[in-house]
Amino acid sequence: xxxxxxxxxxxxxxxxxxxxxxxxxxxxxxxxxxxxxxxxxxxxxxxxxxxxxxxxxxxxxxxxxxxxxxxxxxxxxxxxxxxxxxxxxxxxxxxxxxxxxxxxxxxxxxxxxxxxxxxxxxxxxxxxxxxxxxxxxxxxxxxxxxxxxxxxxxxxxxxxxxxxxxxxxxxxxxxxxxxxxxxxxxxxxxxxxxxxxxxxxxxxxxxxxxxxxxxxxxxxxxxxxxxxxxxxxxxxxxxxxxxxxxxxxxxxxxxxxxxxxxxxxxxxxxxxxxxxxxxxxxxxxxxxxxxxxxxxxxxxxxxxxxxxxxxxxxxxxxxxxxxxxxxxxxxxxxxxxxxxxxxxxxxxxxxxxx
Length: 354
Ligand code: PEP
Ligand code: MN
What we know:
Number of strands: 8
Strand order of the largest sheet: 1-2-3-4-5-6-7-8
Number of helices: 13
Bound molecules: phosphoenolpyruvate, manganese (II) ion
C-alpha cells in the first residue's frame, strides 16, 4: 500500500517541530481571542480549537458548533496564525471550507468508523487542504492506515497522522496508553508521512505534557498538538490536561530536538553491531530449540510429560538472578524465558504427538 503524499507545508521555526496549540474547545469569543493572542505573542503559528466535541456521555459540553467559526476567522485575521479544527461529518467539512479554516483534523472516534471516514473522504474530493488523522481509539494500525488511505484516495496529498494514544479499561498512569510501537511501525511502513504527537490526550494530566513532548522528540515525531487555555482550570472540557500559553512556552523552550540526519550517521555503526548480535541471538535460540526437540524425542520414547514445573521454575529463577547481575530487570528476562519456554513446549508437543 502506498500513499501519494506531498509535504504538509505547515509553518514551524527553523528545525523545530510543527506546533499546534489552543483550547480543547472554543467556549466563548473572549476565551478564544485571549488564548490565541497569548499564543501568538509566544510565537505560535497554528491555532487549534474544537467546535464539535465528541463527548463520551450526553449532557457534557458538546461544543459551540458553527457559531464559533467567525471567532476562528477573527483569530486568523488578528494574529496571522493558521486555524485548525476537528471535522466529523461532511457538513463540518463544508462549513470549515466556507469559513477559510486552514487545517482539518479527524478525531479518534471518527477514524475508527470506516463509514464516517468514507463520507468525509467523499466530501474532501478535489479540495487541497492539510488533513491530520488521529489514531483510532483502539490500537489497530491497519484501521488507522485504512482511514488515511480513504482520505488520500480522495486526492488529499497534504496528509499527516496524530498519535493520541489508545483507550483501555481500568486505572493507569496515562489517559490513553501511548503504545509507542504503533506510531513507530507507522513510520517504518510510510516513512514520508508526517506524524504529530498529542501529549494532552495521551497524558490526560498537565504534569505529563512536558515529558511526553520530549519523548515524542526523542522518537523523531514531526510535531506536537497541545491543548492550551488561558485559564485551564476553568475549561469547559478536558480541564486537567490543558496548560497555559506561558507554560507551553516554557515546555517548548526546554525541548531538546534531536537532529534526525546526524543521529542516523552517528549510530549507524552501533546499529550494525546490534544486527550482528541479533543474528547471533537467533542462531543461539535455534540451537537451543534443536536440543529441546532432542529431549522431546526422549520424552516420547520414555513416556514422560512435556511440561515439568520444577525444571521450568529452576530456569526462571536462575535466569532472573543472572539478569540482575548483568544490569537487566529480572522481570524482563523472566518474560524472555517464558516465551522461549513456550516455544520449546510447542516444539516438543509436536514431536510427542507425531
Ligand atoms: C480533541 O483533540 O480535543 C479530541 C477530541 O481528541 P481525540 O479525538 O483524540 O479524543
Ligand atoms: Mn480535548
